[in-house]
Write a structure and sequence with these properties.
- The chain has about 350 residues and is mostly helical.
- The chain has a domain of about 120 residues: Serine Threonine Protein Phosphatase 5, Tetratricopeptide repeat (Alpha Horseshoe), CATH 1.25.40.
- The protein is built from twelve helices and two strands.
- It has a two-stranded antiparallel ribbon.
- A hairpin with a 5-residue loop joins strand 1 and strand 2.
- The N and C termini lie far apart (about 220 Å).
Length: about 350
């Protein structure tokens, strides 16, 4: 330092270096001022600020080195130090956000790879989708995601297929067929699922008929199921039960018909017996009346022969009643006696 460099001149030069963020120069000038005149106004405060800015810059530059090496945790740590010493350090703030962003992507890609090794494709799909949300242009991730989705759909479809969740399995295999036609045995799986759904519907209808005791309809439906898949559920048991119930129903109906026929026959015999009982006495009464009437008529003719008499003719009728009619009877004389 020359004798002409006074504290005021040094302070002005230090202020210029501070404003231009030349921290090393500013710190050197401020320390020279303190060595000459420690009580110089504002020099201590400005020195402390310059030191903080210098520390922040050093941490930032170290962070940039870690950033270039993709060592995200170390880079973020240095950027945090820089922001602690200089909250207004725009470069440190931007690089920290970028480092956090890339760290998250790398973490998701690492997790996806781990799940890929374990064939947990749903988790792989979830991680890769998050990666694309963070960086839509991530190299190769779209193709990885497409392959992972295909494997996930097949895996999920197979699981529900084995558990006989036909409608859920159908959804997965249909999506897979649209995304990757002809993938593995997707086509045969779809055909089998359609067949199982048809059997399921037939079984549902058969159960409705069975519960309503409509045995012929239930037997027809169960028989259709049995022909397609003899081992389907409890179809053999249900079919045998319905046939047994139908036979019992037929026997009961035949029994009722036989009982009704016997009832009609018994009623007819009873009616005929009652008619005979009713007709027997009336027929005998009619015979008696006819006999009595004939006898009376004969007596009257004998007693009153030759006279004009009025005779009561009594005879029996078919309905068992006695009717009386008047007849005029005149004795017929020989022709010679009539002339005399």
């Amino acid at each position: 330092m020359t004798e002409s460099e006074k504290p005021d001149e040094l302070f002005n030069r230090a202020q210029e270096a501070f404003d231009s963020e030349d921290w090393a120069t500013a710190i050197g000038l401020l320390r020279r001022i303190i060595s000459q005149k420690p009580e110089y106004p504002g020099v201590q405060k400005l020195l402390e600020e310059a030191l903080r800015h210098q520390s922040a810059q050093i941490a930032y530059e170290i962070g940039l080195g870690y950033f270039g090496e993709r060592k995200w945790p170390q880079a973020i740590e240095r950027f945090d130090i820089a922001l602690r010493d200089n909250p207004d350090h725009s470069g440190a703030r931007a690089k920290k956000e970028e480092a956090e962003h890339r760290a998250r992507i790398d973490r998701l890609l690492g997790e996806a790879e781990q799940y890929r090794k374990k064939s947990e494709w749903e988790q792989v799909v979830t991680r890769l989708e998050e990666v694309l949300e963070l960086n839509p242009d991530a190299a190769g991730v779209k193709q990885q995601l497409d392959d992972a989705k295909v494997k996930y759909l097949y895996q999920a479809g197979e699981q529900h297929f084995k558990e006989k969740h036909w409608r859920v399995a159908l959804k997965y295999f249909k999506d897979l067929e649209q995304r990757r036609p002809g993938y593995k045995d997707t086509s045969s799986r779809l055909k089998e699922i359609e067949r199982q759904l048809q059997l399921e519907e037939l079984y549902r209808q058969a159960r409705e008929h069975e519960q309503a005791a409509e045995w012929p309809g239930a037997i027809t439906l169960y028989d259709q199921i049995y022909k397609q898949d003899p081992d389907y559920g409890d179809v053999v048991k249900c079919l045998a039960h319905c046939k047994e119930q139908l036979n019992l129903q037929k026997k009961e109906e035949q029994g009722r018909q036989d009982q009704g026929e016997k009832g009609r026959r018994g009623g007819s015999q009873i009616g005929e017996g009652q008619d005979e009982k009713r007709k027997g006495p009336l027929s005998r009464r009619r015979q008696f009346c006819c006999f009595a009437g004939g006898a009376i008529l004969a007596i009257l003719i004998v007693l009153f022969w030759g006279r004009d008499i009025r005779c009561l003719l009594v005879y029996g009728t078919s309905d068992g009643l006695i009717s009386l009619r008047r007849y005029r009877i005149t004795r017929t004389l020989p022709f010679q006696e009539q002339l005399a």
